[in-house]
Amino acid sequence: MKKVFLSLVLIIAAISLFSQCANDTNIYRFDYAGHSYEVVREEVTWINAATCAVQRGGYLVDISSQAEQDTIYDAIINGAAVSPTYTSISNGGGIAYVWIGATDAAQEGTWIWDGDNNGLGVNFWNGEGANGANNGSPSGGAFTYWGGTGAGTPNEPDDFGGAQDCGAIGLTGWPSGTTNLGDTGEWNDIQTGSLCYYVIEYDYILSVEEEQIEQGMLLFPNPADNELQIELPVPGDYEFRIFDRNGALVIQQSSGAIALIDISALSAGLYFVEAAGEFFFSGTFVRQ
Hints:
Helices cover about 15% and strands about 35% of the residues. By secondary structure, the protein is an alpha+beta fold. Strands 1, 2, 3, 4, 5, 6, 7, 8, 9 and 10 form a ten-stranded mixed beta sheet that branches. Strands 14-13-16-17 form a four-stranded antiparallel beta sheet, covered by helices on one side. It has a three-stranded antiparallel beta sheet with strand order 11-12-15, with no helix packed on it. The two termini are about 30 Å apart.
């Protein structure tokens, strides 16, 4: 029975960690047309960006109109204050990009919105732009904003080098210092393993509570000696329980969202913490 209980605790702790795949201090949130969005200022691959988006309850952004495109770009530059030169992607003309949910990884040349990376999604573009095979076109009148669109001829996607399978918003024209292939804010296909910031979309408006819950439980110091302070992001009355590695309850204490717990009687080792109230939080700490 203790083994079963410990497994449940470990699962809960893992879920808590997954929701924190992005540091909240690196996230800028905004709302548009009944959806919430997050600009995440952390450089990761497209696959890792999609994974984090799903873990947080959303998906890499799906852009379906010029108004949405303009809102997202404004949020990246003016809201999240992302520098247009925060990185340089060599396989994308030497400029900075932000990941979106566009990909043709499942089938080359068939571009879909697959922001949760499950291989399924709405097809919005087929083929390549003028800089590639020059056989591309939108699918069913879908909105697209590939590089060159503003000048009248989409040059992208071009699958340059044969390994560009994911879409991203260019923060300046490219190649660097020019607008020969694309202009500021337009999309380019770049290699999946490139390290870029990204935008998460949610099919609903994140409430203040949901945003707070995402921040999770804070435990410090960690490792701890004699006292452990626990802070929860949502005010309320909570029952704090601490379990050892065998699943045995070793401390139980009632408190508000900020608790100071005496752990001086505990042996050195790893412990699991849960806080149960209107909301549930969990975490781990080490007694040294």
